[in-house]
Amino acid sequence: MGSILKSIALLMAFLAAPTLQAQQVPGQALTLKDAVNYALQNKSDAKKARLQVENSEYQIEEVRARALPTITANGNLTYNPILQQNALPGDFFGAPGTTILAPLGQKWTSSAGVNLTQTVFDQSVFTGLKAAKTTREYYQVNAQLTDEQVIERVANNYYQVYVQREKLRVIDSTYKNTEKSRNIIKGQFDNGLAKRIDLDRMNVNLSNLRTQRQTLINEVQKQENTLKFYMGMPIDTKIVIPETEFTVTPLTLEESADVTKLSEYQLLKTQEKLYYYNRKAIVAEYYPTLSLTAGYNYLGQGPEMPWFKKPSDGVYWTDYSTIGANLKIPIFNGFGTRARVRQATIDLKKTEEDVKDTKLSLELAYQNATTQIRNSLITIDNQKENVELAQSVMDDTRNNYQNGLATLTDLLDAENSYIEATNNYTTALLDYKLAEVQLIKSKGELKTLTN
Asked: Coiled coil where (predicted)?
């Protein structure tokens, strides 16, 4: 039986070896600052937000173009196989009292010219230019908000990776100590000084620890992959998170914060301005529009294609020009404009309500974050003491067991209590760090994590 158990132990150690080696693969050291800055440079959300800011400049240029003159060149060449017959009084041809059908025009005509149109007054153009500039402001605030969202997601997942690794470290440490105890029991069993049931129970406990360890390894890998996704980093990149990153530092807690400076609030206020200009653009349909036009053209006519022909060929070229003013005064369109104005007014009022609700929501988030910070600090202190106590109990119980003063059940219970206490402590640390991120966010200081 001893040889069988020894063979089983060797087999389990062999199966666990690849996993242990996988954890020893060197990787890129990644601090929270490094992770955040990498994400801001590589995550597609941040890139697209910057592209929207760039695109807003082109939108301004597009609206500005409506206020600048429009110049077009035109030309055509027409062949008339059959000229239209026109009924003309015979008086023109020396035959009074008769009607003569005569063709007017030439078989060939060609024209070329340049035309200019300049808007003099169009209220929608002026309003549209203001709206385009506000759109640029909107995308700038949106880019800032997107960066903050990227930072928040990366920070939260960064700390979650750390917690999973801490839990894995505790299991590894417990496994080594339990394995030592199992080896002692095995030696005692081989010499007839221990019961087989004690050895079997230790082997079962080691098997359970290996199962927990493998589950944590999988969780760490999945959490790391999630972190790399939110960073925009290739999934196959190996990373290492320094232990010094997970520390509890005191934060200044104030009774309230000025949430009107936060990006979420500023974005809604900018959107409110856009709805305001949208309403003004619709109201501008009530205003008249005035534009100037000018053109200069050349016209060639004759029985042959006019190009490169002279009067001697029966082709004559003449020039002409036009200057005009176009005035458009809206009078009645079936109350369509009025309906659109009222719809735009409703959109504006809805946005005003969103602004109020968002302000309350941001204030609530700040108060919840400060409350969570205070509670987490108390929990961390309690759990830290609990870990130290569980460590002491486990060490004493292991020593007593080796000296025959404690039962195996006492030892296993002490080890499980230590694992539970340590996991509770790391969970409390995670709750604190997540609350810390929320507090920094509610104060509008997420960008400080990049420094």
From this structure: 199-226
